[in-house]
Amino acid sequence: MPGGDTQTQLRRIRLERPRIIDIPGMKEYPELVQGFTTRFGGVSRGPYESLNLNFYREDDPSRVMENFRLLSGELGVPLEDMVLSKQVHGCRILRVDDSHRGMGIVRERSYGPVDGLTTDIPGIMLVTYYADCVPLYFYDPVRKAICLSHSGWKGTLLDMAGESVKAMETYYASRPEDIRIGIGPHIRSCCFEVGDDVAGLFFDRYPWAEKTARKSQRGKWHIDLENIIRESLLTYGIIAEHICSCQICTKCEHDVFFSHRGSGGRTGTGAALLMMRSIV
Description:
The protein has one domain (4-188, 243-276): CNF1/YfiH-like putative cysteine hydrolases, CATH 3.60.140.10. A hairpin with a 5-residue loop joins strand 11 (214-215) and strand 12 (221-222). The protein has helices at 4-16, 61-75, 153-157, 160-172, 196-205, 209-212, 225-235, and strands at 20-21, 32-37, 82-84, 93-95, 116-119, 125-130, 134-140, 145-151, 180-183, 193-194, 214-215, 221-222, 243-245, 270-276. With 280 residues, it is of the alpha+beta class.
């Protein structure tokens, strides 16, 4: 059950029906354009209603493009300045530069599968996709670099969070103690159920995973992906107070956010958005 602040936020979202919500840990920096999309304010229909942002569902591609145009207008970010991931539940991270602008939306991608995007170039918006998986936002306000990573349960087992930190260290000489991290809406332990086989993978990979897991009367394990990710980040030197979360479960709130499990597998896809503003 979400806390009082989260419940208040959800009531406001349902009342106001915004296309985008802010991400704790990112919204405090005015130099960032950031957010996570809801289901509201788009033109898609049926199970994809209404702000589906995935061209690879059975949705009408022209409607998906119109949804992107609506986002573009609201954000003030041209489609030509967006770069879209190509997700496969892996842990590869692409270093984005000016040559990638518009790829995945108005231009063909020149890159293969990537579940994370990173850049130190202002004016490029990173875009990754979600329908229950964990969105991870990284910002180094010292080196002025960002990373946006998709960490589903498979990506979490591959330590996508740690790979993101290492990418920022490698590409920008970021120091872990400087990096700020936001965790967006995702399926939380209340709803993320797995069998013994998958639970065992987590327990073998992360010694701390079993401490926050619980087994239901139906024999299913409830795994806390966020806690696993948080503990992993601490091992890389991230400061605990620099990790923030919005505490929303996408399956519980599948009327507000797209949820694969909440919809029985037929749904649209939301997006995480992150960009550093261009210096004028």
